[in-house]
Structure formats: structure tokens, C-alpha cells
Design a protein that fits this description.
Layout: E1 4-8, H1 12-15, H2 32-42, E2 47-52, H3 57-68, E3 74-78, H4 100-105, E4 115-119, E5 122-123, H5 126-137, E6 145-152, E7 163-170, E8 176-188, E9 191-195, E10 201-204, E11 209-217, H6 220-236, H7 246-255, E12 260-265, E13 271-272, H8 279-291
Parallel strand pairs: 1-2, 1-4, 2-3, 6-12
Antiparallel strand pairs: 4-11, 5-13, 6-11, 7-8, 7-11, 8-9, 9-10
Helix pairs in contact: 2-5
């Protein structure tokens, strides 16, 4: 059975001011997401599932889904604020859904095979999909054994300012032992560094693995996510900005010894539009990849 690509796109409506400005960065107006889906298809993925907000479904089907339908089976699922466990109500004043792992939970009724999770607006690169697709194809029937693409931090920085990154710690066998979110990571005088909680400068090597929210799971992950979401809400429901993130769930599983997560190495360079000033650089990088033959001039 071929793996599924699960694209987290519920934040699109707010981020892009509706879908009107879904930014065309490729030579024929391709979006970053188009390149991810193209890469996934050539890496052997067999189905596409999007998680979106219900209010922009019609717009999304016309502008996005129609583009891929003739190339790969596509399903759409929805992330809404009131998708909560039985007996739990939305706290007064809460406006946003509950974060990336809540979004992942919405795939439960549509995904029954090993699957990858990606963000809609990150450019992940061909090699990352190749290594993830290969790993997921071997994971049919597995349980408690997941994976994550670990990018070399030097391949993920912005020229326009600092970034936040999930810095990964691994054991000698290449399994994840923890992900620590570091804010304000940047290159200063040739060194990649951040300031830790004690105010001390910490330098990272170029190849330090970081998470760019590119994960590989099997369907048993949904059950863990449901169970832990109940615990999360008991502690955090009152905090109107609290979010149930994927690394939170993954850290919970690995620290309690319930699951293992293999970190897959990739040579791909990640890029995205973190700052408005990044946009032209992304356009130039995509054009260079097209010119070198990595991607066709027109994808779909």
C-alpha cells in the first residue's frame, strides 16, 4: 500500500487573506505546495489528504483540489474549534483551533496507511520526500515506530532575520530523544547560534538536525493523540492561546517509552517565506531548481 501525504492547510485562510493570494512563486505561478505534492507523487505517495477550515472549503476545492484531482486521489478533512472529546466544550473567548496535532487528529477517518505530515507553505525539497516515502513504504503494519525528516540546520536559515527551530537530540542509533524549540536562531559572523534560557550564547554545528514539521506516522498515532488531547485539555483549556503541537505529543511518547521516532537525514534545503523580504529569494531558488532540471517548467 502506498503512503499518504497529509497536508496541514487549516491556517491558510487567515495567513493568505482567504485563498486569493495563494502566492505563486514558480515560473507558471506554482505555489510552494505544488512542489511538495509533485515531489511526493514522484516519491511514490498514493493519496493526498488536506486538513482545512470548513469556511473556505468551496474556494479550496475550486482553486486547489481541482489542480491535483486528475493526478492523485484527493480527500479533504476539516479542523474546527469545536472538534473536541466528548463532554468538553469550547472555552469562552477561544478563537483559534488547537494546533498542529489537533489538525493531525482530523485525518483519523480518512487515513488507514502510513502517512507523512507536512505544512502547506514550507518548501521541503525532492530528497526529503524520497527518503520519507521510502521509509513509510516499509512501515506498513508497524506500530509505535515513527519517523521524522531531520534537516541540517544550516540548510534552513533565513537571510532576513532569526528563525525558531525545533532542535533535535538523538541517540547513537539515530532515534529522537527530544525536540527543543529554540527561538531566535541565526547566523552571526559565520556561526549558527541562539541565546539559551540562561542568557548564554550557544553555537550549533551546520549539520545539527532540526524538525521542520515533516513527520512519518502509522495510524496507531491517532489513538495516542486522542488520549493525550484529553490530558492536554485538562491542563490547558483555560489558556486561550495554548496549542497542541506535534512535538508535544512526540516528546510525550518518547519520554514515556511508548514509541520510537527515527530521524531521517536529508540533504534537501528547506525554505519558506518567514519574512516578506524572503519572497524574492524563494522565487530565485525555485527558478534555479527549474533551470537545473530538478523540476519541469510546468508541474500540473
Amino acid at each position: 500500500m502506498k503512503p499518504t501525504l497529509f497536508v496541514l492547510a487549516a491556517g491558510m485562510g487567515s495567513r493568505y487573506g482567504g485563498l486569493k493570494q495563494l502566492d505563486g512563486l514558480g515560473p507558471n505561478g506554482e505555489t510552494i505546495m505544488d512542489y511538495s505534492i509533485f515531489d511526493a507523487m514522484r516519491a511514490g505517495f498514493g493519496k493526498l489528504v488536506f486538513v482545512i477550515r470548513k469556511y473556505f472549503e468551496e474556494d479550496f476545492r475550486i482553486k486547489i483540489v481541482s489542480k491535483y484531482e486528475n493526478h492523485i486521489p484527493v480527500e479533504v478533512v476539516f479542523q474546527e474549534l469545536d472538534d473536541l472529546p466528548e463532554g468538553v466544550t469550547v472555552p469562552e473567548g477561544r478563537e483559534k483551533p488547537w494546533g498542529t496535532n489537533h489538525a493531525v487528529l482530523m485525518g483519523k477517518k480518512a487515513i488507514f496507511e502510513p502517512f507523512a505530515v507536512i505544512n502547506a507553505d514550507d518548501f521541503y525539497g525532492r530528497h526529503s520526500f524520497a527518503v520519507l516515502g521510502k521509509q513509510l513504504s516499509a512501515m506498513e503494519g508497524w506500530q509505535n515506530n515513527y519517523c521524522m525528516v531531520g534537516y541540517h540546520i544550516g540548510n534552513t536559515l533565513s537571510d532576513s532575520g532569526y528563525v525558531a527551530r525545533g532542535v533535535c537530540e538523538t541517540n547513537t542509533e539515530g532515534y529522537l530523544t527530544g525536540v527543543v524549540e529554540r527561538t531566535a536562531v541565526e547566523r552571526v559572523d559565520g556561526e549558527i547560534c541562539f541565546i539559551d534560557e540562561k542568557g548564554k550564547k550557544v553555537v550549533l554545528t551546520e549539520n545539527t538536525p532540526v524538525s521542520m514539521n515533516m513527520w512519518g506516522f502509522t495510524p496507531d498515532y491517532f489513538k495516542y493523540s486522542e488520549e493525550y488531547f484529553v490530558e492536554f485539555l485538562k491542563t490547558n483549556a483555560g489558556n486561550l492561546k495554548s496549542e497542541y503541537f506535534i512535538p508535544l505529543m512526540v516528546n510525550e511518547l518518547i519520554t514515556k517509552g511508548k514509541a520510537k521516532v527515527k530521524v531521517l537525514d536529508t540533504t534537501s534545503k528547506w525554505f519558506g517565506v518567514t519574512y516578506a523580504a524572503d519572497r524574492q529569494g524563494v522565487v530565485d531558488k525555485i527558478k534555479a531548481l527549474v533551470d537545473s532540471g530538478e523540476y519541469p517548467e510546468k508541474l500540473f
